[in-house]
Amino acid sequence: MSAPLLPNAKVNSLEFFHINWNVWKMLGLQIFKRDVHTLQRLAVSRAYFAWSIAANFMGTILFPIHLAMGIYESRNKSELFNSISISITSIGATIKFFLMASKMKQIAQMEALTQVLDARVTHPEELWHYQNRIRLNIFNIQRMFSVLYSGVAASVAALYLSSGERRLIYPGWLPFEWRQSSGFYALAILYQIFGFIFQISQTYTNDSFAPKSLCLLSAHIELLYKRVSRIGFEGPNEEGVGSKAALQQEEDKLNLCVLDQINLYE
């Protein structure tokens, strides 16, 4: 299929990660974000810094402890296994979150290299392939994760609402007796809702980042293959073929492709 001309089309692969950065910003990870050019940390407001510290203390640190200590309050084996399972999941989400926070410099480097590779996608065939295949596939990956984690949240909510008893969403330890009053019970439920949303958001954005990054890497390798395959076949007309200028032009194209390959290795 021939590729239509797209003279005004531009490639911006960073659009695939906008949702990740929006969620990370909500989770307070913006304080670790770095500039793609200088690799220096970006300045944040005092209010945002305070939110980041408070939210992560409550959601990333205390919530797994709250769930882990709830293991000792399990009343039967079913609650025990459920509590152990959710505690391990919560601790895993916390570990992944801190690992992601420690990789912000590498992510900034990846974004900078991605912009360089995006600028090389100018040929109509490559633009068509990017817009109609690559872009669609990566957004489908994002939709898959969105549906998956929305389903998890919906199932947890449905299970709690259908229980028909006054209980916590998950067994957990609290510094007050939540059974004593409706106020304490509401406070306990609100904290668990906050912690659950906070950690499922962490897991959602962290888990979706790597597959999209790998898919994007594979896409740029594919585009590089298309670029290399055209060398020697698209150039001067028959009269200019074999001339010194034509050979130099093709050599320059090859050198740029080698540079693209080096960037992909980064």
Automatic annotation (TrEMBL):
GO annotation, biological process: signal transduction
Highest taxon, organism lineage: Eukaryota
A Pfam family: 7tm_6
Residue stretches spanning the membrane: 48-68, 80-99, 144-162, 182-200
One GO MF term attached to the UniProt entry: olfactory receptor activity
Statement: the UniProt record of this protein carries the keyword Membrane: yes
UniProt keyword terms in alphabetical order: Cell membrane, Membrane, Olfaction, Receptor, Sensory transduction, Transducer, Transmembrane, Transmembrane helix
An example Gene Ontology CC term for this record: plasma membrane
Presence of keyword Transmembrane: yes
InterPro entries: 7tm6_olfct_rcpt
Location(s), subcellular: Cell membrane
Membrane topology category: Multi-pass membrane protein
PANTHER family membership: ODORANT RECEPTOR, ODORANT RECEPTOR 19A-RELATED
Protein name: Odorant receptor
Species in which this protein is naturally found: Stomoxys calcitrans (Stable fly)
Gene designation: 106080721
